[in-house]
Amino acid sequence: MERRCPYAPPAEYDRIRAENPVTQVELPTGKRAWVLTRHEDVRAMLADPRFSSDRANPRFPTLVDNTPMRAAFKPSLISMDPPEHGPARRAVVGEFTVRRMEALRPRIQEIVDQAIDDLLAAGEPADLVTHLSLPVPSLVICELLGVPYADHEFFQLHSGRLLSRDTSPEDRRHSVDQLTSYLDKLIVEKEAAPTDDLLGRQILKQREEDNVDHEALVSLAFLLLIAGHETTANMISLGVVALIEHPEQLALLREDPGVTLSAVEELLRYFTIAEVATTRLAVEDVEIGGVRIKAGEGVIGLSNAANHDPAVYERPDELDIARGARNHVAFGFGAHQCLGQNLARMELQIVFDTLFRRVPSLRIAKPVDELDYKRNATVYGLHSLPVTWS
Amino acid sequence: MRVITDVDRCVGAGQCVLTEPSVFDQREEDGTVLLLTDEVRGETAERVREATHLCPAQALSTSD
C-alpha cells in the first residue's frame, strides 16, 4: 500500500484499525498473515516470546522471497529466538550503550561538519542524499565496525538492492554473495591481526570466551553494515523535507536546540520507515486484541499504523515535534528492539541541529510530491533530494 | 518507591538510561541495566515509571 501525500501511512491503515484492527491479508508472496494496527496490540505481540523471529522458517510471512538470504549464512540477531538470542545480543550490545554512543559524539559532529562542507562545495543544486544523508551514517558505521569506507559505493549499491522489493531473486542472491564474500575476507584479515574496532573486539571476546564462530561474525557484520546504511540515511532525508515543509516546527527547533531530541522521536514516529520489520510467526496459539492467532500463523505488527493510532497520539498525522513521542515503535519493541537506536538518535540529532544552523536558507529544489521516493522498498526513504541554499 | 530490575530479561536498549540517568546505567561488558539507587521519590519516581513503560524487554518494575 502506498503512502499518502507522500508521508502519511496509507489511508487503508486508518480504516482497518477502526473497523477490524486484527485482520488477515494476503501477501505478495501468496502467503496469508495477520496484520495488527493498534499500538497496544503491536507492543503486546512484540513483547511476547510466543512469536518467533526465525526468518528461516518456511512459514515465516515474508513479503519477498528470502530464500537467497536463508541459504547464504547463519541466522543473525534479527532472526534468532531464545535461548540463542539473549546471549548473542548481549555479546554485542555493550558496543551500543548510551555511554558508548555519547563518547562518539565529537567524532560524529566532525563527520557531519565535513559532509556539510562537501555539500556546500558541490554547488547548487546539490543532492543531499549523496553529500549528507548517506555519507554520515556510512562513515560512522564503517569506523565503528572497522570496515574500510573506501569501499562505500560497493556496500551502498548492494544494501540498496537488498532492501528494494523490485530486486529479482537472482540479483538479491548476487548482492548477498558479494557482501558475504567481502565481509568473510575482511574478518579473516582481522582474525589474523585483530584491530581496535567492533569486529576486532568481537574476535578477541570470542577467543576469551572460547566461543570462536567465524560465520556468526560474518552474519553480524552483514546485519550491522546494512542496518547502518539505509535506515539513518533515509531518516535524514525525510526529516529534512518534513522540517522544511513545516516552517513553524523548524522555527521551534531553531529557537531551542533542547527540542531536537523530542523532534527526532517525533520524526521517527511520523515516518516509521521500517514498518514491516516487526513481522513474526506464532509458535503457540495466542490471543491478541480479542482474536485467536494459531500456532504457525504469521503476524505483521504494522508499526506505521501503530505509530499513527489516535488512541495514543492526538492528531497522529500532524507533525508535532514537541509532543514527546518516545513510546513509538519505530525501532520495534521487545527483545529485538533496534540495537543501533541510540546511535541513530545521536546521528539524527547532530545532523538536524548542525544543518539548519549552518545552512539556514536550505530549501528543496523540486516540488515535494515530485521527489524520488522509495515506494517499493523494505525501508521507506528518498533516492535523491536536490537542495539549494542561497 | 522501590525500583526492581530483571537483568535476565534486559536487552540493553538503554531507554531507561535516556529517561533517568540518575537511577539507571548500563554495564560496560554487556549493556544490561545497572541500578544506581533503588529508592526514588517525586519527579524521579515519575520518570522511573515512564522508563518502566518504555522498556522494550519489560525488565523494569516498581513497588510502593
Automatic annotation (TrEMBL), chain A:
Keyword Metal-binding assigned: yes
Pathway in which this enzyme or protein is active: Antibiotic biosynthesis; vancomycin biosynthesis
Pfam family, one: p450
Keyword Ligase part of the UniProt annotation: no
Keywords annotated in UniProt: Heme, Iron, Metal-binding, Monooxygenase, Oxidoreductase
Record-linked InterPro entries: Cyt_P450, Cyt_P450_B, Cyt_P450_CS, Cyt_P450_sf
Superkingdom classification of source: Bacteria
Membrane-spanning intervals of the chain: none
GO molecular function, one term: iron ion binding
Function, as annotated: Involved in the coupling of aromatic side chains of the heptapeptide of vancomycin.
Family: Belongs to the cytochrome P450 family.
Official protein name in the record: Cytochrome
Protein source organism: Amycolatopsis albispora
Organism ancestry: Bacteria, Bacillati, Actinomycetota, Actinomycetes, Pseudonocardiales
TrEMBL record, chain B:
Transport as UniProt keyword: yes
Pfam hit, one: Fer4_15
GO molecular function, one term: 3 iron, 4 sulfur cluster binding
Signal peptide, first to last residue: none
The protein's required cofactors: [3Fe-4S] cluster
Keywords: 3Fe-4S, Electron transport, Iron, Iron-sulfur, Metal-binding, Transport
Its job: Ferredoxins are iron-sulfur proteins that transfer electrons in a wide variety of metabolic reactions.
The protein's name: Ferredoxin
Species name: Amycolatopsis albispora
